[in-house]
Amino acid sequence: MIYLKSFKLSPHTVKNPNAYPYNVFKSIAGEVFVFTNITVLYGNNGSGKSTLLNLIAKKLNITGAEEFTNIRENNYPLDYILACSFSLEEDESDGESDQIPDHSLYIKSEDILYEIKKIQQEEVLKEGYLYQQSKLGYTKEQIEKLKHSSQMYKQIEAMKFANEKYSNGETSIQIFDEYLVPNGLYLLDEPETSLSPTNQVQLAEEINKLARFFNCQFIIATHSPFMLGTLDAKIYNLDAPLLRTYRWTELENVRFFYNFFKERRNEFE
């Protein structure tokens, strides 16, 4: 299922070389990303893949979008977002949609790490649970009622049990199992965080199934060769000077792994 068809970056530039996020995308200003069921944004640190996910989430008002930290100092981020544009698929007869599902999510690697932390540290369980409910749209009044409810303490007990039973990676997989439900658009920022190679492949295979059989669309920022090699995805390389798609075997990070093991091949034989 395709919900978001394309996203166009702001075509404008500014004189200030440090103006964020103009400076991140100055070489591809005005370019258009065209999405499939699974689209990957590949790039090393500083390439802009996380910034792009957040821009999309902000523009589409998707749960999980973050405010830009320097927004009080200048209007660059707001001006940039306003100048971005997007298009949705409209032909429902082809199994497509003209709207973004309400339960769509932007899930960042730090969100997953926070979830793991609140499971592993009993003193922050209550804070973490209330924080998550506020992210899901609970009002202040509802949060106050929840503080003393049996519902909250049952959830905390379940988290304690999970802490005893599961590793970080297993907990991450459980979190994705909970959040990634059918009929949704999901923006995932480095979902491989805390996952072993085996679990990275498992998660990628699950994403493939959700996209193919359960009407989900994914836009994923990653540089994991295990995710890249498993996902049935269209890949944009944000490290390249011009915006175009790449095969996963062409990407620098993947080639690094390939050459690393190739040079040490005799140690495996």
Automatic annotation (TrEMBL):
Name under which the protein is recorded: AAA+ ATPase domain-containing protein
Gene3D superfamilies (UniProt xref): P-loop containing nucleotide triphosphate hydrolases (3.40.50.300)
Domain of life: Bacteria
Pfam entry (one): AAA_21
PANTHER family in the cross-refs: AAA+ ATPASE DOMAIN-CONTAINING PROTEIN, ATP/GTP PHOSPHATASE
SMART domains the record matches: AAA
GO molecular function per UniProt: ATP binding; ATP hydrolysis activity
